[in-house]
Amino acid sequence: MLEANYDFLDCKFKAEKGKRLLIVFGHYNQTGVDYSYKVVYDGCSPPKVWILSPNLVSNPPHVYKDNSLCLYYPKEQPWKYGRSSLYSHIIPWTHEWILYYEIWKITGVWEHPEINHGSLLKAMLV
Predict the structure, then answer these.
(1) Is the pLDDT of residue 110 over 70?
(2) For a 10 Å CB count at each end of the chain, is N or C smaller?
C-alpha cells in the first residue's frame, strides 16, 4: 500500500534481533530542499523516523535524544496497533515535520501547534 500510493518510497524488510522490521526510505522536496528519511517499524511498537539528509542543525526542535523525529504527542495521540498506520499517519506527519522545520530555520519559531510535554517526555527530547 505504501509503495503503491507513494511513489517516492522504497520499502524493505530486514531481520534484526529476532524481529522483522520494515525499513522505509523516503524523499521529500516541497521546500526546495531534497530530504531523505528512514522509517523503522516492527509492526507493533510506534515507528521511528530519522532524517538521513540533509544534516539537521544542531539541537533542532522536536527530535528525541536518538535524533528520531517527534511527530506527535504520545499521551494525546498514542500509536494504536491496527488503527494507526504509516500510510495515513507517519508519512504525512514526517512531511509536515520537514515543512515546519524549514519554516523554523527561517523564522526561529515552530509554527505548528505544540503541547507542553511535561518533564518525563522533555527528558526524552533533545
Answers:
(1) yes
(2) N
